Write a sequence for this structure.
């Protein structure tokens, strides 16, 4: 089975999309991440949901998780306010990661190897510079574990 056969349509956002809207999309559809495109529509990166969660946690709590228990409920309720007025670009790491991408003709093992090597829950399936779809880790597992 080739990557093009595994690929599914998947929500895509661009670098300048509203960060709060992107986070809502992740939450509402329970997505592991989003493919982020540049101005020309080419995949630029993947924004894992875990990176959005990390962005919401104050740096001092990331440094010392025991401090999370001292935050008031009102502070915790306003944690998503950090996303207001921000773009998806601001949620991405300053040092760009390698784009998790595979070619349309790659095999399921090649897709799994890329996903594993980059520790990313999504890979973009490309034919030349065209995004055909996305393979998620859950889709890959579904296909790999289904008896044939």
């Amino acid at each position: 089975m080739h990557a093009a056969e595994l690929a599914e349509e998947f929500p895509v956002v661009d670098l300048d999309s509203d960060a709060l809207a992107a986070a809502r999309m992740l939450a509402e559809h329970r997505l592991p991440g989003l493919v982020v495109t540049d101005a020309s529509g080419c995949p630029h990166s993947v924004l894992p949901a875990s990176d959005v969660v990390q962005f919401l946690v104050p740096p001092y709590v990331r440094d010392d998780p025991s401090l999370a228990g001292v935050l008031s409920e009102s502070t915790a309720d306003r944690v998503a306010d950090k996303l207001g007025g921000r773009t998806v670009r601001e949620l991405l790491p300053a040092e760009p990661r390698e784009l998790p991408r595979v070619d349309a003709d790659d095999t399921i093992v090649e897709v799994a190897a890329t996903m594993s090597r980059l520790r990313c829950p999504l890979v973009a399936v490309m034919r030349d510079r065209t995004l055909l779809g996305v393979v998620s880790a859950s889709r890959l597992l579904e296909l790999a574990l289904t008896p044939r």
Notes: The mean pLDDT is 87. Helices lie at 3-6, 19-29, 49-56, 59-63, 73-77, 88-91, 108-118, 137-145.
